[in-house]
Write a structure and sequence with these properties.
Layout lengths: L9 E4 L2 H25 L7 H27 L1 E4 L3 E5 L5 E5 L3 E9 L2 E8 L7 E3 L6 H11 L3 H14 L8 H31 L4 H21 L18 H18 L1 E2 L6 H18 L1 H5 L1 H25 L6 E13 L5 E6 L9 E5 L1 H6 L5 E7 L7 E4 L1
Antiparallel strand pairs: 1-2, 2-3, 3-4, 5-6, 6-7, 8-13, 9-10, 9-12, 10-11, 12-13
């Protein structure tokens, strides 16, 4: 059957809010790009060659803004009774008949959702649509009614597999009850991990409790994988029949390492790597032997090793420095320079002269109080401690 050219499609354009936002950004940018070359003409000292280059760059940027605005207004989805057409930038147009579509999936990329239409022909490219179109609920209903939801089918297939697993109970009702219980455990763990991650990242006070939470939660995540290996996935899709504990491991482990890097200054790294690697190996073996699917997927196994190293580094440095009861050696040095780095975080840095033989100048991040006490050329006290794990570290007072 040929296409009915007289059929009026149901058109879904980029939503009004997104169009207004793009106009608010692109139009002033294009106007500014055109106006800057004329403004530069008022500077008589500017070489003509420099002006030409600046004008060319500005005009190219202005043209790019106009093109982007035109593309936003042109982009649309046209839905017919038997096919779907996507009209993109320039003359790009892609049409797929319903009979040629395998199904659709919802994919996440950097917290942005995309609807991906997958053709039956494996050699054909997928059609990726954003979610910035108007009447999204209506568009979603059309896809649900006319195209197979491959994510939902995968979920149901996985759920059927879980509910047939004899390890979870003798009957399907018992297995479903076990799965619901495990979901509650993982939900509570994820909530605690999110809270601990923001606590440790933004305001780790009381410090000991914040660090204890970050250190314990990855262990709880690994323990849940061991206790419920057939009902929990260590890592996997967000929309999975089995709950996933990856964030409860990766989030706290990353922030624990971040706090170790920001809060403590290691003087000698020789004794750091053996305990860090040992913890990483132990965590990897624990998780891999608790969940067979981790061993079968090389990417997941490598990720487990990497984050085991991250967790090991954070844990080792924290235990070594925070619980160090040794009497520190006292040294005197001189502040050579100081500066403040502003960004997502404000960092106060002092550059001090060497205080040990064969040492070199060091730039050290310090607290605001220590920074304000020391001007360039002032004396600073360096306290060098042995470390509870025999890893020397220092702090400036």
């Amino acid at each position: 059957m040929g296409n009915d050219s007289s059929e009026v499609p149901n058109v879904f354009r980029v939503s009004k809010g997104n169009r207004v936002l793009c106009m608010a950004v692109f139009v002033p940018s294009a106007v500014a790009a055109v106006g800057i070359p004329f403004w530069l003409l008022t500077d008589s000292s500017l070489p003509f060659g420099t002006w030409v280059m600046a004008a060319a760059l500005c005009l190219c940027f202005g043209a790019l803004m106009i093109f982007a605005l035109a593309a936003v207004h042109r982009r649309r989805i046209e839905v017919f009774h038997d096919r779907i057409r996507y009209v993109g930038t320039l003359h790009r147009c892609r049409e797929l008949r319903l009979e040629d579509i395998e199904g659709f999936r919802i994919r996440d990329a950097n917290s942005v959702c995309f609807l991906v239409v997958i053709p039956k022909d494996k050699a054909a490219k997928t059609l990726t649509l954003g979610t910035a179109f108007e009447r999204r609920a209506e568009l979603s209903q059309w896809f649900q009614a006319n195209v197979r939801n491959l994510d939902a089918e995968d979920f149901q297939a996985e759920l059927k597999e879980v509910l047939s697993d004899q390890h979870l109970g003798g009957s399907e009702e018992q297995r479903m009850a076990t799965l619901k219980t495990v979901r509650k455990y993982v939900g509570a763990l994820d909530g605690a991990a999110i809270a601990a991650t923001f606590w440790g990242w933004l305001y780790p006070r009381p410090y000991a409790y914040a660090m204890a939470a970050l250190a314990l939660l990855p262990l709880v995540a690994a323990a849940l994988v061991q206790w419920f290996p057939h009902a929990i996935q260590f890592d996997g899709k967000n929309k999975s029949a089995r709950p996933v504990v990856a964030y409860s491991f990766f989030g706290p482990a990353t922030v624990l390492a971040f706090r170790a890097f920001m809060d403590w200054h290691i003087l000698e790294w020789t004794n750091v790597w053996m305990p860090v690697v040992s913890i990483a190996v132990a965590m990897t073996f624990w998780i891999a032997f608790s969940a067979a699917y981790v061993r079968r997927k090389m990417g997941m196994l490598v990720s487990t090793v990497i984050f085991g190293l991250v967790y090991g580094y954070g844990l080792v440095v924290h235990l070594n420095c925070y619980y160090d009861l040794s009497k520190p050696a006292v040294y005197q040095t001189t502040v050579q320079s100081r500066h403040i780095e502003s960004g997502q975080y404000v960092c106060y840095n002092l550059k001090v002269k060497p205080w040990l033989e064969r040492d070199e100048e060091k730039e050290v991040e310090v607290s605001r109080q220590v920074y304000e006490r020391h001007e360039v050329g002032s004396k600073a006290t360096i306290l060098v401690s042995r470390g509870s794990l025999s890893i020397k570290w220092f702090r400036i007072r």
